[in-house]
Every structure is written in C-alpha cells, then in structure tokens.
C-alpha cells in the first residue's frame, strides 16, 4: 500500500527530480516506510511506500528485466503468487517477491490486457520508455484513488490532490459545479474533482497518455447476467465458498492483519471467516459514552463468539475536536461523512498493532442491505399517483412535525427524476435546499446545472434493465465508490493503515451478477436475506436477529455542546463573506436553529463544516 505520483513533461523537456520529490513528500502519510523515484527523460514516477508484501526487496518503482516498463503501484495484487508462477513458466525472471514486479512482467507479456488479469485493489502507473507512453489504471470497484490533470502539455497524476498541487504547473481553482455536486451527494462523484481541470480516473478504467493527448478506456464493469435456472441451496453454498476464498486472499500479508468489527452483518461475516482461517486474529471496534450511538456491546458479542483479541476505542467530543482541527488536510477533498472522525481514530489505534485490517465495505451495496434501497419500491409506487395528489402530499409533508422527518423527506424526494429521487434519501442536501445555501453569485454561475445529472450519467453505462440490478449498480458506482471507499481510504491511509474489503473481490462481484434480483431484495424485511442465509454459520444468533443499524456519530449533540464554539467559528459570517460562496444569512439560520434545538441540522452543518475546513486548507481564507 502506497501513495504514487508523477508526471510526463512535454517533448523536448526533461523531468525535474526535485518536483517529483515534493510530490512524493506530500504522500508520506500513505507510505511512511520508504520512498522511491524513477526519472527517465521527460517522465518522472515516484512512490511513498507502506511495506506490506516483500518487506526486504519490494521497494518501488519496479521494472521488467530490460527496464522497458517501470511501474509504481498503490494497493495490493492479491493473486500475485499465482500470476508470478505463470510468468516464470513463460521465461520471466524476478528480482523480488513483490506484487508490483509481477505487474511489470505481466505488462511486458500482455500489454494493457494484463490489467484485466489482476485481482486486487490498485491505482498504478506504467511508463513505457520505448514508446514514451504513460498508462494509468484503477481497480474495478474504486478502492484505491487516482487523479490526474493536463497542465498545459504536462500530464500530472497522483493518489491524492495534495500531491498534484505540489507540481508548479497545477493550480487550485474551485469548480463551482463540483461544489454543487458535493452538497447534493456528500462527495464529488468521479470523474469530477472539487478542482477545475482535475479528474479522477473512474473505477475499472485505464488511461493512455501519449504525444500530449489522452485516451480513456473502460476495461471492466459491474456485470448483470442472471441465471433463471437457479438451484438456491447450491447457490448459497457457492456464495460461502467464494467468500472464503476472497477472505483468504486478503489475509496474505507479511505484516500483522486484523479486522474492524461494528457488530453489523457485514463486518461480522468478514471477522468470522477470517477467524476460521487464522488463529489469534485481532479485532477493533469504536464507540461512545452515549448508549444511543454505541455499538461496542454488539462488537463484543462478535469478539467473544470467535475468540478474537479484541480492542475497543471510546471517542469523545475532545477526541473529535482534535481531528476537526486537521480535517481539511486529512480529507484531501471535501467529504461529508461524519464517520470519518471515529474511523480515523480507530485506524490510529489499530495501527499500533496491525498494518492491515479487513472491513465489511461493499456488503450493503452488493446484497441490497440499505433501507433506502427497499424504499425505492415505495417511491416507484408513489410516483404513479396522480400529479395533483402528489402535489398535495408534498405540501402536507412540509407541515409534518420534526419526528416525521424521514416521511417528509421520502415524500419530497418524489419530485425528482425517477432515477435520482432515491439519492435524496441516501445523503446529501436536496438541490433546492442546497441552492438556498449558496450565494447569489454562485447560483448565477451554476445556471441550469443538473444537480443529479451524475446519476443519469452512471446509469447510462448500466446494461441491466432490471430495477433492482440498476439500483445496486448505482449504489456501487456512486455511494460506494464516491463516499464509502473514499472515506475508508482517507481515514486509514492518513495513519499508514491498509484496509481490505473481501466483498469487493471482482470475481465475487461477477458471481453475484448471475443471481436473480428477486433473491437479493424483497422489501424491508428481506434486506440482505441472501447473505444472511449463505453465511449464517458465521453469524452469532444475536447479530443475525439484529436489524440494520447505521454507523451513527453524536455530532448533533456535540454541535450543541462542546463543539458549538468550533462550529460557530468555522461558519462565522465574516469568514463566509470572504469566500463569497454561501448565503451568510441562510447558513446562520441553519446554525441557530440547530443550536437552539429547533431542528436537527447536523448533516447539512457537517457538510458545510467539512467543506469550509477543506477550503481553508487548500484555497485559503480569501475568495474562492
């Protein structure tokens, strides 16, 4: 696991090693163990390495035998041992035991097709010195980040924005459309970033850069090829078998491995499977003194059931304040996920004893575990009502008391495009409300911008006609890749901890694509039924009976109490006026209503807070 960075200068120029060193230095939190550089004419590739596989001879960059291809890799290739054996049988000779060198030789053997044969999570770059071409590739589900920009005729790439900005040709200019996307989604969906002219390489894509131009190509997509002739008992057995293999691959490591456990279904089946395969597995959970938000009792049940070495972390408002003081830099790009704070603190605690931790990321998306997914069926029904009835319902929803906020949001969301209305239930600030928080100038600059246009853009690539399959596809492409995996990556890699997600093994995802949707989603009572049945033998009875519980954080109370001064300071009217991005009065009303206890505005307040802390760090305190 690492951070990578580099650039290709225009023809006739030579790369500057000092610029590369500055870019790599910006990523040392991701790779505290070693740095490496490769400067070859106009190309510069660098890496800050976290040693996980091949601790002695695995430092990067890595090249094939004749040095034609040089690779820098952020991530892990889980089946590298099998791939290495295949390549050795074809005559390739290796100088290390690392997965990165396997990529170099595979590329030499197969070219771009080599990426399709990799099982792993990765953002990688390959320089072809003969053709003077650069290749960038990102893993299929989007576990590892990779961004790039064309600065004049210079292609610059990095694992994080901060490393791009260490190149003198790259400037930090806010993209106001991406500000709107951030408010609507809680994150900036790929291929966009919060900065003008900077792009994320989408999951499952490869970028070819040559002669000052680029070509973007998709090499994989989430499949949906349902087999109607399903033998359900055999299907359940196959799910368990494939999941066992996925966990086994992710336990391969030359450093200690543990598991994050919350007491939910997904992290429990990961922990239970890992504990079967390795004795003495360590587990880590986080909680709060407030029992309404504390999941530690459920995590203890899991730890006792599987006999793990269990550690707990209690997060207080003071702990959160310490993270908030550094939040803008930790995030690298605005992200409105309150769980970032406890996840980062848990990562810091776990890093004292392990370097790798397994998580349950992806289970809810792939097995339809979110209540908002079941709500999609009701939304489709509501939209079939006569227009005048819907108008009456929406008008009445605005009059509902605070306790009925979920119902009010559900009804209000029916006003959006059919493919987008569910987004308002997942997260983000509904567009009309978000627009009211922006300054008049920003609203004018946005014009007729489609706040939920990225939903339609994502679904345009979905080959499935089935409503549930399209729902899962959308959640994976947007909510999982854009928010949850980004949250996990930034929170953990800020302290040099590698997280691995067994649910996201691409062969497992492909297998799930052959399962009919009716077995995955059957109303609120059937959430994740298929997963529970397939892996029931590794779920304690108490966890199996437990309903879906989100990873809640008591920021609503903290904003009214010990963090109220911090909130008011960051969202102070004078500071907001200097940026000229937000309507000062509208934000003030939001803050006041929350602090007086009139409404629970913790989610939009967190969104504004996270953005402002990022802006102050990356753009400064002046006008954006």
Itemize the secondary structure elements and their pairings.
Elements: E1 2-8, H1 17-25, E2 34-40, E3 43-49, E4 62-63, E5 69-77, H2 80-89, H3 99-110, H4 113-116, E6 120-128, E7 133-138, E8 147-151, E9 154-158, H5 161-164, H6 176-185, E10 198-200, E11 205-210, E12 213-218, H7 232-250, E13 257-260, H8 265-277, E14 282-287, H9 296-306, E15 309-314, H10 317-324, H11 327-331, H12 340-350, E16 356-358, H13 363-366, H14 371-383, H15 387-397, H16 405-412, H17 423-426, H18 431-437, H19 440-446, H20 453-459, H21 467-493, E17 498-500, H22 506-512, H23 529-534, H24 541-545, H25 555-560, H26 564-570, H27 573-579, H28 584-595, H29 602-618
Parallel strand pairs: 13-14, 13-16, 14-15, 16-17
Antiparallel strand pairs: 1-3, 1-9, 2-3, 4-5, 5-6, 6-7, 7-11, 8-9, 8-10, 11-12
Helix pairs in contact: 2-3, 7-8, 7-22, 10-12, 12-21, 15-16
């Amino acid at each position: 696991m690492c951070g990578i960075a580099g650039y290709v200068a225009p023809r006739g120029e030579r790369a500057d090693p000092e610029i590369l060193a500055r870019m790599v230095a910006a990523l040392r939190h991701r790779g505290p163990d070693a740095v490496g550089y490769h400067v070859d004419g106009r190309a510069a590739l660098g890496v800050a390495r976290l040693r996980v596989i091949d601790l002695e001879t695995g430092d990067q960059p890595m090249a094939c035998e004749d040095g034609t291809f040089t690779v820098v890799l952020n991530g892990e290739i889980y089946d590298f041992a099998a791939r290495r054996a295949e390549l050795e049988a074809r005559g390739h000779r290796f100088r290390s035991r690392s997965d990165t060198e396997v990529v170099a030789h595979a590329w030499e053997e197969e070219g771009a097709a080599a990426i399709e044969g990799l099982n792993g999570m990765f953002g990688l770059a390959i320089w072809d010195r003969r053709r003077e071409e650069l290749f960038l590739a990102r893993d299929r589900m989007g576990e590892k980040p990779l961004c790039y920009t064309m600065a004049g005729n210079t292609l610059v790439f990095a694992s994080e924005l901060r490393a791009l900005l260490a190149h003198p040709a790259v400037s930090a200019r806010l993209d106001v459309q991406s500000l709107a996307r951030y408010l609507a989604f809680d994150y900036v969906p790929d291929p966009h970033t919060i900065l003008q002219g900077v792009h994320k390489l989408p999951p499952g894509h490869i970028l070819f850069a040559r002669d000052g131009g680029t070509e973007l190509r998709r090499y994989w997509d989430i499949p949906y090829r349902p087999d109607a002739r399903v033998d359900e008992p055999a299907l359940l057995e196959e799910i368990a078998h494939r999941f066992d293999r996925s966990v086994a691959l992710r336990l391969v490591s030359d450093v200690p491995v543990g598991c994050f456990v919350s007491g939910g279904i997904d992290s429990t089946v990961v922990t239970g499977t890992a504990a079967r395969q390795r004795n003495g597995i360590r587990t880590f959970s986080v909680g709060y003194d407030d029992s309404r938000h504390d999941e530690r009792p459920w995590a203890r049940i899991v730890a006792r059931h599987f006999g793990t070495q269990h550690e707990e972390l209690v997060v207080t408002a003071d702990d959160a304040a310490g993270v908030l003081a550094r939040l803008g830099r930790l995030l690298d790009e605005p992200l409105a996920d309150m769980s970032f704070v406890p996840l980062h603190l848990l990562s810091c605690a776990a890093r004292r004893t392990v370097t790798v931790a397994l998580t349950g990321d992806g289970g809810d998306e792939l097995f339809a575990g979110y209540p908002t997914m079941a709500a999609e069926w009701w939304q489709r029904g509501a939209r079939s009502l006569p227009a005048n009835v819907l108008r009456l319902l929406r008008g009445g929803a605005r009059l509902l008391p605070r306790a009925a906020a979920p119902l009010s949001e559900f009804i209000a969301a029916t006003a959006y495009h059919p493919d987008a209305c569910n987004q308002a239930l997942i997260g983000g600030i509904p567009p009309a409300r978000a627009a009211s928080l922006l300054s008049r100038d920003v609203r004018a600059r946005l014009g007729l911008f489609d706040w939920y246009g990225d939903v339609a853009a994502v679904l345009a690539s979905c080959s499935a006609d089935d409503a549930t399959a399209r729902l899962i596809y959308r959640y994976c492409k947007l909510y999982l890749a854009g928010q949850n995996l980004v949250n996990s990556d930034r929170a953990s890699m800020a302290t040099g901890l590698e997280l691995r997600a067994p649910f996201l093994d691409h062969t497992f995802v492909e297998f799930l694509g052959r399962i009919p949707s009716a077995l995955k989603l059957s109303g609120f009572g059937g959430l994740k039924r298929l997963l529970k049945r397939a892996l029931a033998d590794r779920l304690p009875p108490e966890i199996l009976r437990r309903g879906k519980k989100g990873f809640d954080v008591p920021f609503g109370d903290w904003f009214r109490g010990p963090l109220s001064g911090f909130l008011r300071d960051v969202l102070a009217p004078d500071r907001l006026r200097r940026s000229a991005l937000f309507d000062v009065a509208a934000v003030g009303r939001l803050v006041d209503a929350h602090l007086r206890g009139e409404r629970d505005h913790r989610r939009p307040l967190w969104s504004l807070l996270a953005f402002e802390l990022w802006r102050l760090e990356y753009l400064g305190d002046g006008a954006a």
